[in-house]
Predict the 3D structure of the following.
Amino acid sequence: MAELSREGYKHICNLFRNMNYLDDLISDYYERVGIERNDSARDHQSTMARQAIMVSLCTLSSMTAIGNKFGKDHTTILYAKRKHDRNMRNLDYIDLYNTATEVVEDLVGKVDNDVFSDTNKAKEFIFALVRENNYLRSELHREIV
């Protein structure tokens, strides 16, 4: 899994608070795996798909927040995490989990790019202010002398 910088983590938390990125991410996952989302379904494929995305989302959000998005209790996510190692012996689950991880990493990459872009813009602005400050100081010095 891609490492997320501290700034990126703060940025992604703000995105989740301010927008419905988590909902979009879950929808994108279900589109990629080609399974209709049904949070109350108990069939094997739906359950495995749901558990795979729940486990992947644990890197970005709390179990309570994830559970709320699925209409489940946080203990359901805890159960999915506990079953993860056993599920990784199942090729279908591995595919689902890899897709879920890709969806999460895509979002992390977008956020890190946004943070990097914003950081560079801030640096450019600061350098412009420093140049302006130096110019004004030199002008002031010339007027005094």
Notes: Residues 6-112 form a domain with the Chromosomal Replication Initiator Protein Dnaa; Chain: A; fold (CATH 1.10.1750).
